[in-house]
Design a protein that fits this description.
- With 199 residues, the chain is an alpha/beta fold.
- It has a five-stranded mixed β-sheet with strand order 4-3-5-6-7. The chain has a two-stranded antiparallel ribbon with strand order 1-2.
- β3, α5 and β4 form a beta-alpha-beta unit.
- It is elongated, with a radius of gyration of 20 Å.
- The model has no long low-confidence stretch (mean pLDDT 90).
- The structure holds zinc ion.
- Zinc ion (ZN) binds next to α4.
Length: 199
């Protein structure tokens, strides 16, 4: 016998398929949503569909944006000669929150992981190399996580870029090993950036 109606089970299954949401949380959310007014549920559903329809990757840095060029890439006051390479938009947001980094970014949307079968062509590396074609870029700061995948990715990118003559640096390892950048406080992030070393 099914505990809940088919419709509730369907909602629970969809929610439970999201990252970080276990079955218990999915049930809690499902019941909460059922208890919401029809108008609020519609707003939530619209927000999901709207975001999916309008958000895409920035043509240059691959960050998520509503416009063809994200506000950072489009800002002439930013230092267009420096690119910081991060694994995901959350890491970018962490550095933006410090308000001290003036350069541009490049979002890889992942990291190389031979164990998970994620190779260089599965992340947005080709797009990074394309950005180095003209000689505006003088330095690439690799700010991937200090996990095995992050280090593997950093090494790979460094080998790829070095022959082009562009300076390649790596943020300092003051960032705890295996630590996700987004959970690290601003002071540590800035120290990691200032203490970056040549690769
Ligand atoms: Zn951009």
């Amino acid at each position: 016998m099914n505990l809940y109606s088919g419709h509730i089970n369907h909602l629970i299954d969809e929610l439970a398929a999201l990252p970080g949401i276990g079955n218990k949380s999915a049930q809690r959310l499902a019941f909460y949503i059922i208890g919401m007014s029809g108008e609020r549920v519609q707003r939530l559903a619209d927000a999901l569909v709207d975001a999916k329809q309008h958000v895409h990757y920035c043509r240059v840095c691959q960050n998520l944006t509503d416009t063809e060029l994200c506000p950072i890439c489009a800002d002439p006051k930013r230092d267009h000669s420096t690119i910081m390479v991060v694994e995901n938009p959350r890491d970018l947001a962490a550095y933006e929150k410090t308000g001290k980094y003036q350069g541009l970014y490049h979002v890889l949307h992942g990291a190389i992981s031979p164990m998970l079968g994620i190779g260089p062509s599965d992340i947005r590396l080709k797009e990074l190399i394309q950005r180095l074609q003209d000689d505006t870029v003088k330095e690439v700061i690799i700010a991937t996580n200090s996990s095995l995948e992050g280090e593997t990715t950093a090494m790979y990118i460094s080998k790829l870029i070095k022959p082009t003559g562009v300076r390649v640096t790596r943020i300092a390892s003051g960032v705890p090993v295996g630590g996700d950048l987004e959970y690290i406080d601003e002071v540590t992030l800035l120290r990691a950036l200032e203490g970056r070393t040549e690769l």
